[in-house]
Amino acid sequence: MENFIVSARKYRPATFETVVGQKSITATLKNAIKNNHLAHAYLFTGPRGVGKTTCARIFAKTINCKNLTPELEACNQCESCLSFNESRSYNIHELDAASNNSVEDIRNLTDQVRIPPQIGKYSIYIIDEVHMLSTAAFNAFLKTLEEPPKHAIFILATTEKHKIIPTILSRCQIFDFNRIKLDDIAHHLAWVAQSENIKTDSDALNVIAQKADGGLRDALSYFDQIVSFSGSEITYKNVIDNLNVLDYEYYFNLTEAFLQNDISKVLLIFNEILEKGFDGHHFISGLSSHFRDLLVCLDEITVQLLEVGEATRQRYKELSTKCNADFLLKSLTISNQCDIAYKASRNQRLHIELSLLQLCNVSRQVSKNDFSKSAENISAQQSKPVNNVASIAQSQPVTAKPVNKPTTISIKGALKGDIQQSEQIASTEKDVTNIDNNNKADNSFTGEQLLEAWQSLTQQYISSGRIYSTLVSQIPVLKEGYNIELVLSNITQKEKIDEILQDLVNFLRSKLHNQKICINTVVSVKENTKKPLTVGERYNYLNEKNENLTKLKQSFNLEFS
Questions:
Q1: Cα(130)–Cα(125) distance, rounded to whole angstroms?
Q2: Contact yes or no for 432/456 (Cβ under 8 A)
Q3: Class of 447-528 per CATH?
Q4: Which residues contact 12 (CB under 8 A, 6 or more apart)?
Q5: pLDDT digits (tens, 9 = 90+) for 315-326
Q6: Beta carbons within 10 angstroms of residue 404's beta carbon
Q7: What are phi and psi of 402, to 5 degrees?
Q8: What is the torsional sign of CA 364, 365, 369, 372?
Q9: For residues 236 and 405, what is the distance between their CA atoms, to the nearest angstrom?
Q10: DSSP code, position 381
Q11: pLDDT tens-digit profile of 274-305?
Q12: Taking the CA of residue 80 as centre, how many other CA atoms within 13 Å lie in the half-sphere pointing to its CB?
């Protein structure tokens, strides 16, 4: 049986041209070789799996190559290149600082640096995970790093540049490796799949690339894992099942339910997601990203910011036509606030469900706002002729009308100089007065409407820490006579809420248009029982249980210590 080699090793770049996603760095290194402007120390830093050690090896190999190609790549034919390819080169030395981080290891390295190369012009020392060196080892390395022999070049690689002391950083040329773009990873995976005769679809490769989070090595590891699972064909469903990725379909269905204000469907979808083992925080973070992707689809210019496969891109474009910017911005705000406050919540599932209920209400609020704006425009248009009635009446003669004419007339009639223009204005003013009186009435409301108003109320205290957590974790109960009962867990919560109680009442009265609303805060019976703490309290507590305790105290003349 042929030995299996993982894709990360089998398809590891061997030339500058094959390095993925780091064009600016490879171009700089090639120009340094071309112009013979080689520094004595380099520091390659960046996330894992983006090509730091790979570029260090390619750079080291190319420096000593005797027959560079016109593209400034190693020839792979000279003795230096062959010895490197066969892992027997004595000019290129690799040191793992994680396991060689003592002063003694650095002293051995310092002694080795003095030996000139046997083949080629330079001795290159690649020190991986250099941040793992101890402080004493860094100090021992300083002098050699600053003034090494002419034949020595150091290439340091690390994922945590902030752990390296400044005196080391100041002696190196620093190259910051970026996370590899999703498209670059997906194209590389497609090339690997083609080389291995594996069928793939673009959506599946994009999901793998997203899961890798900018690391090509991680992407290739996931690729091998999927191949072991599905064989010679990689599909979108195989990828999401094997990598435990939340399907886009859930987010599309949720958005449709939000737009239809379908609370039952939303809660059932969320329950299904939890039953499949997905973390709530991961879900709400993905929902925020989903709203962001819909937002960028509203404009053709920003569609290019959408990092998904072509089929999924079309789904986003279709769904974005049903959403407006106002809906998406409000939804994005709610989901982001839920994400921020998730860890502080004691009941995290309820915390997410409340946010989902708010998202269901967003579309209705947006519709109401649109209707109000339309009503205002209509009112403004109608008010213009009415305001000019007096001037029109003055400029036109008053003519007699039959006695049996209607008591009210239209604006059109007023424009014709009708004698009842003043009656029209009086009637309009009376209608407006009646509308105002109706608005001031104490409107009735349901428990569901109370819950919606309470959710809006909690958002006013999003930055208030414990108060916000208390308000989110408690559900108000509607009693008779518009009295609202709020059951709290302990005395401390009650004291905090009582400080802002009037503000809460005013908000709900305004929101629900009812001036009779009152809030009563109570502590649960279980928590309201005060435990005896001091000696006197304990004595009184026991004395209530057994009156003979007093006789015992008096008989022996006992006192509290």
A1: 12
A2: no
A3: alpha beta
A4: 54
A5: 888 888 888 888
A6: 5
A7: -60, 150
A8: positive
A9: 74
A10: H
A11: 988 888 898 998 899 999 989 988 888 888 88
A12: 24
CATH number for the region 248-365 comes to: 1.20.272.10
Express each pLDDT in 495-542 by its tens digit.
888 888 888 888 888 888 888 889 888 887 554 455 666 767 777 777
Structure tokens at 550: 């007093």
CA–chain centroid gap for 89, Å, is: 47
pLDDT digits (tens, 9 = 90+) for 53-84: 899 999 988 988 888 888 888 888 888 888 88
Beta strand extents in 15-140 (DSSP E only): 41-45, 92-96, 123-128
Tell me if 177 sits within 8 A of 64, measured CB to CB: no
What is the reported pTM? Answer: 0.58
pLDDT, tens digit, 9 for 90 and up, residues 426-472: 444 444 444 444 444 578 888 888 888 888 888 878 777 778 778 87
Q: Kind of pairing, strands 518-523 and 92-96? A: unpaired
Burial class (CB in 10 A: 0-12, 13-18, 19+), 201: middle
Domain ranges of the chain: 7-176, 182-242, 248-365, 388-440, 447-528
Q: Which helix (H) or strand (E) holds 203?
A: helix 202-212
